[in-house]
Amino acid sequence: MMRASVWLEEKARKGGRTGQPSGLDRARITSATVRLLDTDGLAKFSMRRLAGELNVTAMSVYWYVDTKDDLLELALDAAFGELSLPDTAEGDWREQLRTLATEYRALLVRHPWLSPLAGRYLNIGPNSLAFSRVVQQVVRRAGLPAHGVTGAISAVFQFVYGYGTIEGHFAERVAGAGMTPDEYFSTAMDAVAETPETADVIRESRDLMAARGGDTVAEMLDRDFTFALDLLIAGIEAKVQRPERGAGL
């Protein structure tokens, strides 16, 4: 039987069963889950480890959730609650879209476990829905025909999802190596440049790397992200200014 969502179950709305252990609540359990996921990663997360963090038995946690999946889904939505959402009643849609995209990227980098969970669950928690609603409201204001709104949203936020996911994985590798991002990048580039199978590619792209600019990895990542996002927004503007031929006929 296909699993639905913790948000469609009665206990998600009420926060637990009757007679639950004292000293615990769903918010505390969810916050501890987010902390552990940030510290240990998704692969190492377990209900037993969570219970130890809370100084309770594993059975105490199960008063609030039936499964580990329920808990991960709650943590996913809690992370979405960190996003700052603009007032869509006023302001420039382009700047609001840039802000939302930048916030989402930072969230994915800050919580590398978020991207696989976002693809695993329905994303219908209150914070996730609030984010989706604001994104839709902002893109609607661009002036696209109704049939193009979801495509524009996909273009922007699937790009951000991919960019933030890869950047988050890079941050994890850097931390695991005990290096700074710049040290890791320099070491990796030296190794690649010295390997015959990859040296030609590095030589061919040297002019692109130089033109890219940026003195640090963070600056390079920011410049690439900003330029790519500007391209996507320009594409939306172009579609608004030059509707598809035959549209409305």
How would you sum up this structure, described in words?
By secondary structure, the chain is mainly alpha-helical. It folds into two domains: 6-80, Orthogonal Bundle (Arc Repressor Mutant, subunit A); 93-178 and 213-241, Orthogonal Bundle (Tetracycline Repressor, domain 2). 69% of the residues lie in helices and 0% in strands. The protein contains 13 helices and no strands. Helix 5 crosses helix 8 (126-140) and helix 9 (146-177) runs antiparallel to helix 13. The radius of gyration is 22 Å and the shape is flat.
The number of distinct structural domains comes to 2
Beta strand count: 0
Distance between the ends: 45 Å
The whole-number mean of residue pLDDT values reads 90
- Assign the structural class, choosing from mainly alpha, mainly beta, alpha/beta, alpha+beta, or little secondary structure: mainly alpha
The named CATH superfamily of the largest domain = Tetracycline Repressor, domain 2
